[in-house]
Structure formats: structure tokens, C-alpha cells
């Protein structure tokens, strides 16, 4: 179990961030154990041939038998959504001693694979090159839709924080997270650890997490499973209720039904198999009639059902 002692100043400095490099690294869990990530099986099939041409020896070795990753390939984002090139540049500038330490820590009492026993400088460059090539073929082509899901989750969490404070925010992250009297506990973690207050807290939604985890570092950080992952690889949305279709029209009802999680115009269009321009027209009508809400998160405009829209959908 990990305990984070959070004071008033920490809660005042809670921030959300998304790291492309962290998502790239976390996705290696799904590559290693496809059966444990059924929601990503379609993506795994899409990248299978390209992945086989990469440096699979080092990529496979980055995940230890107990599913730990070296901390330096899952960095704390310095911005809300840093650029992958900047993160890789930072990785390439790391001290060799840090690389060697984090690799050894990830394996602990396990036998270190031969590929990771190389000179730390050479190993750092090989890992950076392997992750960059992997990002290009496995993550970057799908990053727009991945980022939209992550940003939608951040919007949802921010709303929970505004409406119910820290208890509502932390209580909904994952069942293994417990908030009680200023202490944030992450259960089912293999290494007991206690983190004192006074440095803020960074929350990172991820598409590849099965529970909330806390990579240890200079500032407390929690990576937690994002909402809406089940919609990530959807090509067709579930049909709207017939009664709702009769009330507002089948097309508008279909758009409303596609908003199980907040989504951009492009995401809704993909779910419905129609053009973004058609979706935009329907969203404008639904917004004007109070059935959906709109919010900007970074460069993306996300739409979600309003309370009225949710009631009409029966939820």
C-alpha cells in the first residue's frame, strides 16, 4: 500500500496532465499480456505487423516479470500535455546512473535480461530509439482519438472536484484508491511506501492502466484508468431508444446516444460512421435545446449529455 499525506497546499496544487511517453510505455503492458487487455485487442491486431519490425528485444524487456517499468520511461509531465519529442529529448539527457538505477529497481530481485545489462549510455540511447520508433507506428496514428478520451476524462474529474471536492475526486478514480482525513491510500500496491505532503499532486489518466498506481518521484503522482476506454476502438455506436428517436429524430437521437462519454465532433462522427459536418449540425441543435453541454479542453471542444439529455436517454 502507498500512502500519500496530502495537506491543504497539496490539494490547492492538484493538477491533471497527460504524458505521451507515459502512455507509450504503459501500452507495453497490453503488448506483453494481450489477454488482460481485451478492450485493446483491436488495436493490437492493427499494430501487430509493424511492431514485429521494431526493436522488440528491448521493448519486451522493459516490462519486468512483476509488470514494473523503469521510472524514467514514465516521466511526470512538466506541462498539461507535453510534446513527445520534448519528453524523448529529456530521456536522452538523463544521467546514466539514473538509467541504471531505474532499470535495476524495476527488476529488483529478478534476473536482469542481458539486453538491459549494456553500458547505461548505450542502453539509454537504445531505449529512447526503440520507444520513439514504437510511438511512431503504434501510438501516433491513433493519438488524436486517444488524447480525446484522456481529455474527456480530465474534464469529468475536474467537474467532480468542483461539485464535491477532494472526496468526490479521489473516490471515483478507482476502487483501489481510498481518501480519508487527508491521506490518499493506494491499495494492492506491492511496495509499502509513504509520501509526505507539501509538493502538490499530479493526476494522470491512462488508457492502459488496470488500477491506480503511483510511480514514486519528486512530486506525488497517481496514474489511474481513464473513463471511456471501451469506446476508444468502437466503430459503431449503440442505437438510441426508439421513443427518443420518435421524439427528436433518429439522427439527433443517435448523436445523443453516442455521448456515453464526452467526445469531440470527430469522435462522434467516427462512432456513427458519418461525416463530422453532419454531426456538427446535430450537436448545434442539441446544444441549443439544452440536451448537451460543451466545454473546451486544451485544443479540443468536447460535448457531453446535459442532465436533461441523460434523463431522456434513461440514465
- Sketch the major β-sheet: 4 strands, mixed
Shape: globular
Number of strands: 9
Strand share of the residues? 5-15%
Q: What order do the strands of the largest sheet run in, or round the barrel if closed?
A: 3-4-1-5
Q: What's the end-to-end separation, in Å?
A: 35 Å
Overall number of structural domains? 3
**Uncertain residue segments:** none
Total count of helical runs of at least 4 residues: 13
Radius of gyration: 21 Å
Series of secondary-structure elements, N-terminal to C-terminal:
EHEHHHHHHHEEEEEHHHHEEH
Description:
The chain has 13 helices and nine strands. It has 315 residues and is α/β, with parallel strands linked by helices. The protein folds into three domains: 2-16 and 145-228, no CATH class; 20-144, no CATH class; 234-313, Winged helix-like DNA-binding domain superfamily/Winged helix DNA-binding domain (Arc Repressor Mutant, subunit A), CATH 1.10.10. It is globular and about 65 Å long. It starts with a strand and ends with a helix. The mean pLDDT is 87.
